[in-house]
Amino acid sequence: MSDDTRHMAHALRLGRRRMGQCWPNPAVGCVIVKDGHVVGRGATAQGGRPHAEPLALSQAGDAARGATAYVTLEPCAHHGKTPPCVEALVRAGIARVVAPLADNDPRVSGKGFEHLRRHGVEVTTGVLAEEAARDHAGFFLRVDQGRPLVTLKLANSFDGRIATATGESQWITGPEARRVVHGLRASHDAVMVGAGTARADDPALTVRGWGEVRQPVRVVVSRLIDVPLMSKLASTARDVPVWLVHGSDAASQTRRAWESCGALLLPCEVSGGRIDPQALLAALGAQGLTRVFCEGGGQLAASLLAADLVDELVGFTAGIALGAEGRPGIGAMGVDRLAEAPRFVLEEVRATGADVMHRWRRG
């Protein structure tokens, strides 16, 4: 492994730790190296500011002069709430910048590299570009398509059921799997469920057991907002954001009641009697979300899969069988032939306590 690859891998690890913590900004890592030694490290701060580069430069101090900065995305070149990172890099005397790929934000794309070269900074690109593109996929999707990346999580019995025929579902998987799920929540900007799940489970949808983190937005998709006001979501909406995506036919009294609890209401187009999945993700993207963790229910999962809007699958399979009368994890999709079914590429399989975790990505 070359030095460039090793240091970029380090920067990517730093950036990944900030996933879910800095939307709408990308989770960027930066490592500053001089004479083979790391003199500064940084990652995008919680809430998106400061950026990774000024944090790493601050740690490096005078040692930044003549050093190489490894940044996991093209440094920004536009004036926003803070000055451009390229100006900070030049001012600090950085001699070389290594970045895997360009930012796709038109305010930045190519301009950051151009500014650096114009000011005498050597620029190297393409190092671990595939890994960086995967890490920044949600940010890129929001810029290019106006929607966040969607990870669909399912916790099933061996025969693909999420509950018994009577609705009992807690707990099919064990505590180790549930801890991993909380970590996955923390790495996403929002956790999303359908109204049926919100009613049946009365979930909190917060991150627990992972220290002080920026809690994900709790998104409930419900055309008529048929979610009880006497629920954990309603009672905590002022502490952790709750967004309700609903149709225009939701009762005005219900809307006002949820708004009085502190929830944000997002009206959305309805198609076939349900919230249109394309419009749903466009509404979430417009609010700044880049990564959404969908935890069901079955109808919401089916609509996202049928519309080809699921980018990653995370499954937890328990060694228990519930039979045909058990409730399936995904609702009807109208698939008649195997060729019509969405297919994903296996990324990882590992034991998680007594269960098996498997991760898949869009093919």
Question: What attributes does this structure have?
Answer:
24% strand; nine-stranded mixed sheet; Dihydrofolate Reductase, subunit A; alpha/beta; globular; 5-amino-6-(5-phosphoribosylamino)uracil reductase activity; multifunctional enzyme; 363 residues
What does this protein structure show overall?
One of its GO terms (biological process) is riboflavin biosynthetic process. Its cofactor is Zn(2+). Keywords: Hydrolase, Metal-binding, Multifunctional enzyme, NADP, Oxidoreductase, Riboflavin biosynthesis, Zinc. Pfam families: dCMP_cyt_deam_1, RibD_C. By secondary structure, this protein is an alpha/beta fold. The chain has helices at 3-16, 52-60, 85-91, 111-118, 129-135, 137-145, 175-186, 195-201, 232-235, 252-261, 277-286, 298-306; strands at residues 29-34, 37-43, 68-71, 96-99, 122-125, 149-156, 161-163, 190-194, 217-221, 242-246, 264-267, 270-271, 274-275, 291-294, 312-317, 327-328, 344-352, 355-362. It folds into 2 domains: 3-136, Cytidine Deaminase, domain 2, CATH 3.40.140; 146-362, 3-Layer(aba) Sandwich (Dihydrofolate Reductase, subunit A). It is globular, with a radius of gyration of 22 Å.
